[in-house]
Amino acid sequence: MGASEEEEKFPFDINPMYEGERVRKSGLYVELGGQSKPGFELVLFEPEPEKIKDGEVSLIGPDLADMEEGGKYAYGMIYRVYGEQIEKDLEAVIERRNHEYQSYIQGYMHLNQRAEIWVRISKDAVKKGLKSLKQIGRATIMLFKEELPFIERMEATFITDEAEVEKRLEETNEIYKARDEKTRGLHDEDVDEFYQCTLCQSFAPTNVCVVTPDRIALCGAMSWFDSRAAARVDPEGPNAPIPKGDCIDPIGGEYTGVNEAAVRLSSGEYDSIKIHSFLEKPHTSCGCFEVAGFYIPEVEGIGWVHRGSKVSETPIGLPFSTIAGSVGGGKQVQGFLGIGIQYFYSSKFIQYDGGWRRVVWMASDLKERVADAISDEMKDKIATEKDVKDIEELREFLKRVDHPVVKGVIREVDGEQITEGWAVKEEAAEVEAKAEAVPVAEAVPSTAQVPLASVPTMAPGAVAGGGTPIQIILKDADISIGKIIVKRKEGK
Ligand code: SF4
After folding, report:
1. The CATH number of domain 5-184 is 3.30.720.210
2. pTM of the model as a whole
3. What separation in Å is there between the alpha carbon of 421 and the centre of ligand 1?
4. Residue nearest to atom 3 of ligand 1 (CA)
5. Residues 102, 292, 176, CA angle at the centre, nearest 5°?
């Protein structure tokens, strides 16, 4: 990146190589947003250019110099943009880039998106002369305008006053909600193109994000409409269209065009993706997913926990952070999946694996948050940490509520039974074990068969008279014997 005149004025280095830089506790000056303070980022399109004071950054609340070292503060970032090519659908796309551009600033760590943002500023950056969040704002605007030339005017309002952040966050959540609801009436089969997103390939090179009407981006920041708006202004850019091609599997959501894109975007690492599958050829997951799903083989069901959940442990004994470590990295990991929260509202939500009928556990704060997405049939059948602590308790819970995984999941979309049911399998195994424990004389009453069943090829003592007799039951066996030689044992 060439150093512009304005860039020279900043007391920090700006370079894409700082993307991924972490500010650890030991080097922390302040933390903004994150788990303990409210935060958000928002881009708003302003159709009247004269209403934007281009390049201006205002701040509501304490600035860096007024903050205590090691302190945690609320943080809201609102950008207003104008450009002839900009339409409202581009708001979310521009907003998603805030993470990328702010990550270019040395000593400034920006993670996550929307109302999950987590920012840390290092002591080193402050020592080098970073005095004000306004400097961060001006650098961000400069980067936006350099990288996205369709932005003609841009101003920013940063807020650190906690009450004000909370107030604005309520309005912001409504804006996020309206954006998310926009795609609910549109389905994958209604469009000819999906959209890729390669923004996260900078840290997860094989990640293949495919955004469709029925599957919002796993970071939750971009819907199909948003991606389309991005592709319109930059058709060759990171959100380029993916022609769907032919549908190979309508339930799993597998398309020839997506498979071709998978090969191209992952440099050959993956050749097929089922967009609505959890266990077979799942969508890849970079590190930005809002929710992590994990398969629990003992109950043949799926659990979900989200970033920022107050729940510290899942029934598999792992917290979100550990599960996230297994999911991320741009990999297609069978048994784990990263999704955006809005995907719970999709009518195709993991439909290949049985949709909601396959969900056995959710963190209680997540279950409450998406309560209206859960089918009526399943609302009371999904456990949370308040119901169960471990797998054993989970099994008992699922039996008690007669969860579909217990006796076998019938996939709603096509009526196919896709699992046998672990309780059914266990009962069958018990019956079999009991049958095997029945004395051979009862089970095989034919006198002609008994000697055969006791042929002592493996256990001579069984017929030779020494030691404890051993019963060998042969079921469904075809035995042909050419000759039997019976010899008396010496000394008998
Ligand atoms: S998670 Fe996917 S959609 Fe979201 S920014 Fe990263 S690559 Fe793009």
Report:
1. no
2. 0.77
3. 36
4. 217
5. 55
